[in-house]
Amino acid sequence: MSQREWIEKDFYKELGVSSGASQDEIKKAYRKLARDLHPDSNPGDTKAEERFKAVSEANAVLSDPAKRKEYDETRRLFAGGGGRGYGGGFNPGAAGGFSQDFNIGDIFGQAGGAGAPGDGGLGDLLGGLFNRGGGARARPAPPPPAPPRRARPATSSRSSR
Fold first, then answer.
1. Spatial contact of 124 and 134, defined as CB atoms under 8 Å apart
2. Which of 131, 136, 137, 150 suits 159 as a labelling partner, its CA being 20 to 30 A distant?
């Protein structure tokens, strides 16, 4: 499943739990819904079958701590998903047009407003490309050129006679 699909779906709502629900609460909600919506319990009911698939998909993401964390971060970054906002953190209902979690400093690697070189972000990328010290991998300045050599006076290898 792509992150784009995660933005459009509210897995917590599918399972009927809050976003702060524990793993046990998620498991309990899934088991109850899966039992009620299972195709064997509802033969021929396409709505129940579709809902069962959606609940199973939600459980697959929310029951895995790593996937759940990624899902939460993706939705937080893109204004909570569910069709609200226009992606990219823009939410016309929020003050100033941006969602509450939007921070322009994130783009430039300045979490908390004071980024240090090597923290990531656009500043590191551009600094590394143009050798302006933006990142930890910036190359040191080249050494100054050596002074030009002076020509020695010509000496004759012939001995005087």
1. yes
2. 150
Q: Which of 91, 81, 106, 98 has the alpha carbon at shortest distance from 5?
A: 81
Structure tokens at 140: 């040191």
* Residue 8: partners with Cβ closer than 8 Å, 6 or more residues away: 81, 82, 83
Looking at 9-45, list the stretches that DSSP marks H as alpha helix, in order from N- to C-terminal side.
11-15, 23-37
In one letter, which amino acid is 36? D
Write down the residue that tokens 């909600």 correspond to. Answer: 29
pLDDT in tens, the chain (161 residues): 667 777 888 999 999 999 999 999 999 999 999 999 999 999 999 999 999 999 999 999 999 999 999 999 988 888 544 444 444 444 444 444 444 555 555 555 554 444 455 555 555 556 656 655 544 555 667 788 888 887 777 666 665 55
Structural tokens at position 160? 């005087």
Amino acid at 155: T
Expressed in percent and rounded to 5, the helix, strand and coil fractions of the chain are 45, 0, 55
